[in-house]
Each structure stands twice: as C-alpha cells, then as structure tokens.
Amino acid sequence: MRVSVKWLSEYLDLSDIAPVELADQITLTGIEVDDVTLPSLTLDNLVVGEVLTAEEMADSDHLKVTAVDVDQEAPQQIVCGAPNVKAGQKVIVALPGAKLPNGLKIKKSKLRGVESNGMICSLQELGFAEAVVPKKAEDGIYVLPMEAKTGHSVLPYIGLDDAFIELDITPNRADALSMRGVGYEVGAILSQKPAFPEVTVSEDRSENISDYIHVSVDNSQDVPVYKMRVIKDVTVQESPMWLQRKLMNAGIRPIDAVVDVTNYIMLEYGQPLHAFDYDALESKTIRVRRAEQDEKLVTLDGQERRLNPGNLVITNGEKPVALAGVMGGENTHVTGATQTIALESALFESSVIRKTAQSLNLRSESSARFERGLNTAAIERALDHAAQLIADLGNGQVVSGVARVEAIQPESKQVTIALERINQALGTDLVMDEVVHLMDRLGFDSETSTRELTVTVPPRRWDIEIEADIIEEVVRLHGYNRLPATLPKSESIPGELTHKQQRVRDTRHFMEGAGLSQAISYALTTNEKAAAFSRVEGEPVKLDWPMSEEHQALRKSLLSGLLDNVQYNVARQNKHVGFYEIGRVFYPVTDSKLPREVTHVAGALTGSRVEANWQEDEQPVDFYAVKGILEEWFTVIGVSDEISYVPTNTYPELHPGRTAKVRWQGQVVGVLGQLHPQLADERDLKETYLFEIDMDALLDTDKEPLIYSSIPKYPGTSRDVAFVVDETVLHETVLSVMKENGGKWLKSIRLFDLYQGENIEQGKKSMAYSLSYQNPEATLKEEEVTSDFEQIKKALVEELNAEIR
C-alpha cells in the first residue's frame, strides 16, 4: 500500500512530524514500512511553462522548435521531439541545472545546430512508471491544466511535492489497505481522531432505482451483500488533475472520470467498485450466480475466459457481464458514449474470489481486497460517495434509492478481557485507565468494571475477535520497546528427560552407531504414497486445499519418504545407503477432523553393509542383517524378551517370502522385510530392506524396572542338540518350545548351524543349537542339567516331530 502523506494530511494534522519519523512510528506499532520516498529532495528547476509557438524543425521529421514562457525575461527556446506538443499548452519544463530521476542532467545544448535551453518533460522522465501514465500522454508530454501558474514549481501539480510511505500489509491487517484505514492507524499512533468529510448524496426524486434495476443473488453465502446505484445523464470525460494525481501516485493509471472514481474510492475506503454501462446491460435485472461449466466471458483485457462453477459471475439475468470481484466484462464497460452508469458495491466470499483470481491468473488490487476481507460498514458509504462524485464530475444525477440484497448487517463485536490477563501476558503493570486510553486512541468504545474491560470493536477492524487480539492492540500502542526485559517468573526445578524422551534419544544414538544416517521427510505426500506400507486400513487424511499434488495427504507410514531419499541418493552414485527416521504418522479417526498421531521409527538399507577390503569380503545387506539391528535395538530399550517375528505376505509393497510382522506381547507393532522386486526395479534400486516400528506402543506401556545383579560366582555348563525338522518349522517356534520346556536354569539358546542338502531328506532341514545352563546360587549338578535337557529333546520330538541326530 503506497500512502500519500499529503492525502493522509486531509484527515490528520501531520505538520509536526516528518515523513521519515512517521514511518518509524508506524513500524514500531507493527506495520512494516518498506520505503519512504521524498521526490522533491532530488527534483529542482522543474517549472510550469506555456508553449507560445511550436514550429517544425528544418531537416527533421519529428523535432519541433518551441518558444516557452517560464516567467523569465524572455521566452526560452526548447527543441522538443514529443508528437503532441503544440502552442497554447501548459507543460512541464526542466530548466538548465535540473537533474532528472533517470540521472539525466539538463544543460544548454544544441540539436542539429539549434540552441535548446531546457527540456519539455514527459511523466516517464520524471520517474512515473509507464503503467500509470494516462493514455493521452504515454507517447508524449503531459499537458497541465490551464490554471497552472507559469514559472511556478511544477511539483505540486503532479504530486511530486508529496512524500510516500510504502506499507507492507500483512493478511491480518487488511483494514490498512485503504487511506481511511491508515488514517485510523496513524491517528491512534499520534493520539489524534481522524476527520473524514461527510458525503451527502443529492438524489433525483423524480425517478426511483426500481424503475432502472432489480438485483438478486443465488447464494447469500457467496454474496452476503450486493448493492447498486444508478447515475443518469452522465458525460464521461477526463478526470480533474487532483484525481489523476492521486491515482498516479498510488500506482494506478487514470482512464476516465467514471473508472477513476471507482479506483479512487477503492483507495480511500478499501471497497472495490465496478461501473457498468447501464444501456449495454440490455436488461433491468442483475443476477449474481455461479458460472456454468465452460461458460464464456470476454473480460476487459480482451481475453475470452472459459469459466466453471467455481467462478462467481454478475449476469444481466441471462449472460455474464462481469467476473465478480475480479474483472468486468468487455460487453458492458464504460465508454465515452456512456450516459447512464450502474454502479456496483458488494461483499463477495473471499475464498471464491481467491480461487478465481488464481485459476485465471487475474490478480488485481480489487481481488486482493476481496480476498482479505472488507469493512462491511463502508460498503454503502463508499457506494454513495462514488455515485455523488461521478455525478459531480460528469454533470449527471443520482437516481433515488439503492437496489440491494443484504444477508448480513454491519455489527460491532464485543471482547471482554481481564486487566490481569493483559499484564500477565505482557509483563506490564498497566492500570485500567491506561488501557482505556489506548482503546480510545484506536476509536474503540470500552466499559470497565473492577477487574474487567469490555471493548466494542467497530466493523472496520474485523481482524479483532478474541482476547489475544486486544492484547496485541494494547502492546502495539503502548510500545514494544517499552515492554520490560525480564525473564518469566517460574519455580526452579531440575530438568530431566521423560522415559520416552530418553528412549527416543537412545534410539537415535543406537541407529547412528549401527551405521544408519538420520533422514527427515515431509509428512505431506501424495495420496498413493500416504497409504503405502500402512498396516492400518482406511483412506489417509487429506487436505481440503493442498499447495501441490505432491503434498495432498498426511502419511500413514514413514517408508515412502525414506524410499524417496534412498532413490535420490542411489541416483547420484551413492550405492550403499542406510537411513533411519523417527517421525509421526497420521491415522484417520471416525467422527473427528483431527487425525491420531503416532510416533514411528523406520529404516531403509540397500547396497553393502561392509565393502570389500584387504581384510574381509563384501557383506551385502540382507534380511538377517536388518533383523539383527532391530534385535539389538529391542535389547537397548528393554523389550527383547517379548519380541517375536511372524512371516507375512499381507504387504503388497514387500517381498511375500522375505517379510515378517514384528509382534510384542501378542500385538503387531511393526514390519520387517525386503522391498518388492517390482517396486525396486521401478525405482532403479537393488535389493532394499525396510523396517518400521510403532515406538509409542513399545515406550508408552509401563515396564518392570531393570534390576542389576552381580556376575554369578558359580560356573555354568552347556549342551548341544542337533535335529532334523520340516523346513517349514520356524526358528521362533523352536525357541518357544525350548524356553517352555528348558527348566529354570536354562540361561540362553543359540543357533549355530543350519543345513539343507546332501544326506538330508528333501523338505527337511538340520538345525543345531547350543544351550547354556547356570544356577546363580550354587553349582549345577549333572543330573539336574541332564533332566532338563532330556525334557527339551522330548518336547522337540512330540511338538515339532523332530528327529534328534
């Protein structure tokens, strides 16, 4: 928002504060100032000149020799190449010694032997952007009004004697996207009440608006407020200099008096307006509705737009005549022949305008204001002001009455807050009278009790709704720089990690010690990746308005993100990759918008664990290497005794013969397996092994405390057993049988041999285990160990149909 200090001075007394100081004050109260511009500091020797004569220059097809009166002893001879220069004009003259914004320094010179004592300037040469220069002057010089005083400084006539403050308006402060909004803000800063001129509409009572137009809306949620006035007998002509000056300095090109008024009112009130050529509507009906699929409209920029039901259109009852809140239609725009104006002022649903502007790439000052919200109390006030101004500038008459549809009325909001709450949040010792005074500066009415303050917030500050908003307003005006620099008061207690936090930290250390590197992937991904590898049924949680197709849904597993990281590294010649990630996954909850969040740990490994060297051969990653990492980790966090592995083929993304569910206390807590070869080929990966474990399930449950004991002083003994069983018998099953029948002195079980082949029946396998026994309180007797060992062999034969070797 480019704020003119002179325009702002129409509402407030700014005589005692410099523009730079004012900008500093605005910054201190929370609205960022990008820049402060004072053109008059660098512009000098620019005066009003009157062209007395303009003769064609000999031997030139475009240059003219002019005699210009600049209120000196004699007219100055100036050579000018502008095609529109002619005698009788008041123009901008840069006298010798002037320095223009483009760095050009004016001095006496000769062009083709003809002396030139200065320069007749265009607006572009004075620093105005091409996009804001009026069309009549875009290819030549700018002609000043005849009342401009010859020889006087030209800066006041084109607004360059002003100062401009560039405000960077955040979405929550859309009220400052208008001069009146900035007026209220600066008034609060300077403890002044802005004075805005009252506007009275002079209506022609001989006719009523109902004779001209009727308005309707299909959906009051799309269009809560829609109002229209009609101005008749208008002569569309050029805007006066004061209006052009304000628009150009705000970055808007003057067009004609009608269009310029709508832009001027938008700048003053923050309320976008649109003017229709009433006769071009060819109807007495205005209907606001959603567009039909593939409905077409040619907008003011000459482009044919193909619309859809997501767009809101203004129609003449049948066909679209404007794209609501974004751009008017070419078929109803105001021209020099227009005599009757239908003027629209409305409130449109911000999300509809935003999506339309984005989809059609039609961002504008108007759409930006609709997107951020409007002051509902200014909708009709701005309409009245604009209608009267159009009538005054075009010698027209405002038809009596307003055609309207109103589903809402402007309402003030009340927010109640305790003084103690304000001081507690800010660390201040403000008293009630001080807070009331701050509210008065903002223009908010307030009522007080012993401890509470009830603030009445007018519609112009629609961003204020809750206690925190009032606290923010208090601290803005009180001064951020005046807040006490004290530490918060709290009871001093020793800090320590919770059990779960400590185990998470231990997990990081362990995984990195096992050779894995930590990865962090996005929680948002595609719908397909979000659902992959999940053991929880149901669709993933999806965003209503995702920023991109790659971030549409919340993940239900960490493995898709880890695989993307592995693929990225392998594609860049990192052949041996091991990643782990600790993060949250998100499961949908019935009858709740919020998902259930669960912390998982996952890993992905491919390539070799050990590369070939002079000491040892290459060791590629395999199922058992990854299983070994998990087994060691389960030991670290104290859950290894109750962990088991069950083969599964229920994960379509994993190898059906090399995948196992991880169970703890009878419940499935994770999965371990090889990436399906087909998916590996699609990602250009070699054998890749994955695991994912539900950490919350393992760490949130209360566990028996670890009890440390000294090393037993009595020796133990061991027994070996080898047997042949069906190849379908699992190692986990063998361990379970041995533990159940091993007796109380059985200390550990270790598989040391597994064989299939020659001398072993097909479909069978030979397994050999070493069993360790120990009594921590006495020396074991031979008969005790033998009895327990025989019981194990008997159980193997009976339960697993084993053949003891």
Automatic annotation (TrEMBL):
Q: What is this protein called?
A: Phenylalanine--tRNA ligase beta subunit
What CDD domains does the record tag this protein with? PheRS_beta_core (cd00769), tRNA_bind_bactPheRS (cd02796)
Q: Which GO terms describe its biological process?
A: phenylalanyl-tRNA aminoacylation
List the catalytic activities from the record.
Answer: tRNA(Phe) + L-phenylalanine + ATP = L-phenylalanyl-tRNA(Phe) + AMP + diphosphate + H(+)
Q: Where in the cell is it found?
A: Cytoplasm
- Which positions are annotated as binding Mg(2+)? 463, 469, 472-473
**Organism from which the protein derives:** Alkalibacterium subtropicum
First-listed, main subcellular location of the protein, grouped into a coarse class: cytoplasm
- The FDX-ACB domain extends over 712-805
GO MF annotations in UniProt: ATP binding; catalytic activity, acting on a protein; magnesium ion binding; phenylalanine-tRNA ligase activity; transferase activity; tRNA binding
Gene transcribed to yield this protein: pheT
- In this chain the B5 domain maps to 410-485
PANTHER family associated with the record? PHENYLALANINE--TRNA LIGASE BETA SUBUNIT, PHENYLALANYL-TRNA SYNTHETASE BETA CHAIN AND LEUCINE-RICH REPEAT-CONTAINING PROTEIN 47
Q: How does it assemble?
A: Tetramer of two alpha and two beta subunits.
What family is this?
Answer: Belongs to the phenylalanyl-tRNA synthetase beta subunit family. Type 1 subfamily.
Q: Which HAMAP family match?
A: Phe_tRNA_synth_beta1 (MF_00283)
- CC cofactor: Mg(2+)
